[in-house]
Write a structure and sequence with these properties.
Layout (H helix, E strand, L loop, with lengths): L1 E5 L6 H12 L2 E4 H14 L7 H10 L2 E4 L6 E4 L2 E2 L7 H10 L3 H17 L4 E5 L2 H5 L5 E6 L2 H14 L6 H17 L12 E4 L5 H14 L1 H8 L1
Helix pairs in contact: 1-9, 2-3, 2-4, 2-5, 3-5, 4-8, 7-8
The structure holds 2'-deoxycytidine-5'-monophosphate.
Amino acid sequence: MIIAIDGPSGAGKSTLGKMLAKHLGLLYLDTGAMYRAVALSAIRKGIELGEADLVAKNARDAEIELKGEVDSLQVFLDGENVSDDIRTLEIAQAASVVSTISDVRRTMVDLQRKLGEQSPKGCVLEGRDIGSVVFPKADIKFFLTAKPEARARRRFEEDTAKGRVSTYEQTLTEINERDERDVTRVDSPLTIAEDAVVIDTSELDLSEVFEQMLTKVSESKPLAEARTK
Ligand code: DC
């Protein structure tokens, strides 16, 4: 079973994706972490992010792995655990830039499909183009969204809890910049797939959204079929 979760940053995709994957015993793939690893790799090697061909070649050569349990998923770049290094503001912006490069996207989409198809029970993938490009035939597609202010507030609270220094205003500006880039890029922009279940999480708490998602999943074809067997 393939579950696609798309939406802008700070809408709750990661938290809810992990909750669903854990509950259903599925693999969880954070595809944003992969674009972040591509960005980190380029920056570490001194490659200009504007040099699309070099960034894309470097992405092809890089070994990006996601390992571990859903709750403690670790991201490895060429064998090194970079889980913390990819979570900086600089890398978030850089990931948004490298993700506009079509050749980079092609490499990541191939890898995401391979990992998703290999998982024995299925996979929850979260990102921006899962339902539209990576798995257009996903069993169920969610599009989680929320007002920019609500998303910035959540991101800011997460960052503060992790000891990162920023202000709510900075976080809001950063989120708006990234949204603009992710929505307006030419290749696979953030869009709502036609058959996606759209949930606005601005006014809902986590457990309410989780219940809504679980209900949709249990109504979806594979689980409904499994029950009649
Ligand atoms: O979800 P995130 O913040 O970790 O994603 C980082 C960037 O990667 C985001 O700005 C857009 C890009 N991205 C993408 O283009 N396609 C995906 N499937 C996932 C992320």
